[in-house]
Amino acid sequence: MVEGRPLRRRNGRIHRARARLGHSHLTDRHALKLRHDVRQALAEYWRTQGELEHSSVVAYQDLARRLEMLDAPESLVRRSLSAAVQEADHWTRCFDLAGRYLGQSLRPGRLRRPMRLPRSRTAELVALAVETLRDGVINEAYAGRLAAAKAERATDQRVHDTLVIIAADELDHSSLSRDILDWCLAVGGRPVYDMVNHMVTTMPTTTTGIALPMGIQSRTLGDHGLLDADPDGSMFANLVAEVRDELGVRLQGHRLDAA
Questions:
Q1: CB 153 within 8 A of CB 95
Q2: Considering the entire predicted model, what is its pTM?
């Protein structure tokens, strides 16, 4: 489980580019008051978040291209490109926070859109439905809820503002994914229906929490957005249960079309 829509290689593995140090030295009196080990932990956390958000930009650009090739509604393509712009705002904010704790600016590494081998329209619709359910409907909704919980806990204003924006955007991206999944079910017929139905019934209900650095007060980290917002996994389990119920109703509506 990852927060948000990841960029995946052809083998399904998550891909992101390591951020590089910039040329500017940053001075933030509030951040520099923190202990060195605290700043290092926060810098690494927000750097990783920024790298994941940066990969999401390419993932959404790739999604828009795939939707175009499948002759999807123009509104879905447009919303995917809009999501890419929002993800670009996210990585900028995350890298700004990382640089604030690190004391030096960061810039993203280079990422290329994954090469995709030609496959049939049906196979592409099935693959798109699988990725949309896993990475969009589930991952992005979970990312939005986690960010909202972290924002509620954060006392640092810049961190709070960043998390509020990310939470709203990720939940909006999850809504987009639901619409894409509906379209895949509507045009994909039995193969897409069978795969989505299988995923709904076999969807995992547990996930691993975030590993917090040892020897640092969790309260201090939580003030700056680094905390396990779902320690017992109940947030994720509840989300999966909601998605199962919702998709159960939607699948009923597509069953006759898929027959």
A1: no
A2: 0.88
